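Quick one: structure tokens for this chain, please?
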Amino acid sequence: MGDLRQQAEAGSRILELSTLYEISKLLGSSLDLTRNLNGSLRILSSFMGMHKCMILLCDPRTGELSIRLALGMAPEEIARGKYQRGEGILGKVVQHGVPIVIPDIEKEPDFVDRTGSRKDPAGQPVACIAVPIKLRGESIGVLSVDRPFEGTHSFEEDLRVLAIVASLIGQAVGLQEHIRREREGVIEQVRSRDQLDGLVGRSRRMQEIYDAVEQVSRSRATVLIRGESGTGKEMIARAIHYGSPRASGPFVRINCAALPQALLESELFGHEKGAFTGAVGAKKGRFELADGGSLFLDEIGDLPSSVQVKLLRVLQERCFERVGGTRTILVDVRIIAATHQNLEAAIARGDFREDLYYRLNVVPLHLPPLRERREDIPLLIEHFLAKANRENNRKVRITGRLLKVLLDHDWPGNVRELENCIERMVIMSRRGLVVPEDQPLIFEPAPRRDDAAQAVPLPMPTSPPSRLRDLERAQIVQALRRANGVQARAAELLGITPRQLAYRLQKYGIVRAFRVVDERTAIEA
């Protein structure tokens, strides 16, 4: 008789340990909390013969206790399962933080069957066991199960198992909450001008960017960031990575335009020893280094055609071989690409693969140039000025006149150009207050060299104008004179496009300010 009892106890203990092992393994298998909790309830039901298993969690704002997941209940019954702290048995479990066992719920006056599903159809008495789910010592919910009441049944084993399971659930909920707060914190960093210099701004366009970053960060989708140079594409890429479930993984970047083709392929995919001259050992590429994280491919529009083919395969199959190797390497990498080029035009020219374009352009983000969000310029100036003063131990300020001059400029180099301008201003200033005459900006467009023409350096006026816009206007006038009033030729001399010149002519009111007198001379009308 004693042997049978010992065997029964041993079998019960094995079943108990098996239940706890399966639940702990499931809760640690992924970050999908709903799936994991639902699976845990199913294990309790199948292993331990428990019914009406449900998890109730408290709303952190209202304190209301409601059913998060339940087995053996209809959706309308689950929707009715809401309790206040201290209300009924479940509310008391949360309020006092102690487990409660009700051998027969029909005989318990404090039992509130809000769902209407707790009566056994056969009329057999039903027992309810409820244990608190705690996080950092505070009750955040309840794990509740039913089982048919048997007069000889001891609830000690049930309480022991459910208490451990409730503790595991509390840890899982806490981990999920921690991840949520981390994501929100990263998004707040994106919005904080003290954390991400290039993303300062409260304009409508920037708010749209912030919202898009927050939305896309939650997914695994490939992102293509487009925008002019200096608009902050890499900062957006970092924000997407650190706001995603991959935030704990590596963020690896590579500039596709900065390396020759042979070296770029090795940098991306790695190489084996002896793959080429100088390959004295095996080397991991950026894809391997970014496994489990994100890979930022900057200037993707400059990727050579041969490398585009290999990149397309990685995007499709998530595998590749190192240069000179035959072993297939599997990787789990999220791709974030960026370019300032017109990829559609590159496809039309045959310089960029159309199938690769569609693989990269899953979620496109377009960063506006600074001239399209001028209301953000004062915030950027304030931020960069404080940063430059702090780094250079200065206390430089700017006048309202200079601020207006800076607001009037188009900033073709965008935020990067503005930051450099402010830094030069702080470093070169001989006094604490900077006026327009002290500024270091020269609005001479960057020379553009091509087969058609070369930009010619323009002489500066002998007496510098007091305003930057006057200086730019003077250079345009000078170029038009040298080009005999021909706008296309003047644009070539200035190193800008005819469209950009037409915009400046209209801006400064000199659209029809010139007429050709003869082949050599043009005078201002």
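The longest helix spans residues 156-191.
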